[in-house]
Amino acid sequence: MMRGFWLLTLLLAASHAERLFIGDQVIRINVESEEQIKLLQALETREELELDFWLSPVSMELPVDIRVPSSSLSSVSEILSANNIAYSILINDLQERLDEEKFEMMENHIKERSGKSFNFGAYHRLETIYSWMDTLVSEYSTLVTKLEIGRSYENRPMYVLKFSKGGNKPAIWIDTGIHSREWVSQATGVWTANKVTSWSQRLN
């Protein structure tokens, strides 16, 4: 799940900046000591290596995932080997994986545009999610309300879905898409909203 989140984040960045990640690898290190954590933290500050730590070195209980540019593969391998730090390769060529993800996203977009049902197992563009929210409100008008609660830093509208049948019962608040690099939370929020409406129908 986490790997998919970072892949989609990079896919978005690549589409806007036209950056390619040909030959870049994503490696995983299972940290075995505090010394290794300190060494990896020092490695993270080496700007010339242009490393992108997907999971930072903070604990021996958590793995460390790093995107290594093709130009730094040899140097990073030598540094890790010299310090007896083992690693595994999660993604051998990041650009190939991004191309696959992009193709899947395009397929999902085409299916939705053709009128087929919303795919809750896929990531979606923001405008697609907003359109789905409008559809949900129209289908469950007695239960769901779409509200604009403000504007983002870029002056974009921020919407919430309110599920209520009236009364003064305690409310549950679910945040999604708060951080610019989030992808999984939006998908989770959409899935949850769909479940709330479907479950409400069963309870009636």
UniProtKB/TrEMBL annotation:
Q: Name one GO molecular function term.
A: zinc ion binding
* Matches recorded under Gene3D superfamilies: Metallocarboxypeptidase-like, Zn peptidases
Key words of the record:
Carboxypeptidase, Disulfide bond, Hydrolase, Metal-binding, Metalloprotease, Protease, Signal, Zinc
Family membership: Belongs to the peptidase M14 family.
Q: What is this protein called?
A: Peptidase M14 domain-containing protein
The segment(s) forming the Peptidase M14 domain are: 122-204
The record's listing under InterPro entries reads: CARBOXYPEPT_ZN_1 (IPR057246), M14A-like_propep (IPR036990), M14A_act_pep (IPR003146), Peptidase_M14 (IPR000834)
Q: Does the keyword Cell wall biogenesis/degradation apply?
A: no
Q: Does the UniProt entry include the keyword Transferase?
A: no
Q: Where is the signal peptide?
A: 1-17
Q: Name one GO biological process term.
A: proteolysis
Listed under GO cellular component are: extracellular space
Superkingdom of this protein's organism: Eukaryota
PROSITE patterns with a match to the protein in the record: CARBOXYPEPT_ZN_1 (PS00132), PEPTIDASE_M14 (PS52035)
Name what cofactor the protein needs.
Answer: Zn(2+)
* Pfam families, A to Z: Peptidase_M14, Propep_M14
